[in-house]
Every structure is written in structure tokens, then in C-alpha cells.
Amino acid sequence: MQNTEPQKRSFVRIPFMFLLVLLAGTSALAQETGGAKVSRLLNESGAKFTKIADDTWSMSFEGKSMKDINVLAGVGDGILVTFALIPQSKGVKFPPDVLMKLLNLNDQYDRVKVGIDIKGNVFVRIDMTIRTLDKSELSEGIDQVAAAVDEIHGQIRTYLPRTK
To answer: What are the phi and psi torsion angles at 41 (to 5°)?
Structure first.
């Protein structure tokens, strides 16, 4: 009768070694910085982007109302902020009905924030948690910001100064 004890141990070792390799791979991904993860996901998504600074990227879109849409994405404190500004809105004194429209748009859009920043610019923004971010979520968020800023521009452009 043969002793099968060493074979039993090797079968136990294989799943244990596999688990160690799996955990080592997970640990390496967990150590990936937010900026590195966003950069990797942007590359994987096939998006056309320009890196403008560490942890900051720019993507260009062409809209129906707003021809040149510049969506910016920046990493900070575990959050990826994606936003676009409506040009020529800085310092514009919007009548109350337009301000009410902007407030109502916040209610109509699911994930998009619409507002006026401290400098008086109308913005559209989505904040995404980097920990749970994947390629699909990133692409959808960027596309949604571009689409929303184009739509909002179309609704308020009569109040904006005309460009030369």
C-alpha cells in the first residue's frame, strides 16, 4: 500500500498558492494612486484626452449648441471631478427666471450638478468616487457632462454675450 499523504498536501498547497497570487495582485491594484487609476482607465477607454497637469486631463467635444466643449477631469481626495464651463457666462447677470431654470435642471438631471461657481461661471459637474470607478463609469460620466453642458448652453445662450 502506497502512502498518499504527500499528494494530499500538494492539493492543499495549490489553492493556497493561488490565493496568495490573487491577493498579491489585488494588493498591487489597491496601491494604485487615484491619478494612476484614472490615467489607466482613460487609456483603456480609448478616449481622446490631453494630460494638462498631474492628475488633470482635458477632453474636447463638439456639441449642437456649443461647438467647442472642453471637459476637464481632476483627481483630489479619492474623488474624480469632471466638469465643463459655459463660456462667456462669467459675470453675466441672469434674470431670476434663468436662475430658476438652472435650479430646476439640478432636479431634472440624475447625476449632474448644475451651478454657478464663485467666479460667476455656469458649470456642469459630476463627482465620481475613484475607489469604485471603472472604465464604463468614467466614459459615461465624461459623456454626460459634455451632453448636459451643451443642452444647458442651448437653453441660456440668449442671455450670454455674443462672441465676435
So the answer is: -65, -40
Helix (H) or strand (E) holding 153: helix 135-156
Render pLDDT for 58-96 as a digit per residue (tens, 0 to 9).
999 999 999 999 999 999 999 999 999 998 777 788 899
Identify which of 37, 85, 94 has the alpha carbon closest to the alpha carbon of residue 58: 85
pLDDT digit string (tens) for 19-50?
Answer: 445 555 544 445 789 999 999 999 999 989 99
CA dihedral sign of residues 117, 121, 122, 128: negative
Burial of 72 (0-12, 13-18, 19+ CB in 10 A): middle
How far is Cα 21 from Cα 60, in angstroms, rounded to an integer? 40
Q: Which residue in this structure is represented by grid cell 480609448? A: 46
CB-based burial of residue 83 (10 Å sphere; 0-12 exposed, 13-18 middle, 19+ buried)? buried
Q: Are 37 and 130 in contact (CB under 8 A)?
A: yes
CA 156 vs CA 15, 28, 94, 120, 121: distances in Å = 61, 47, 9, 14, 13
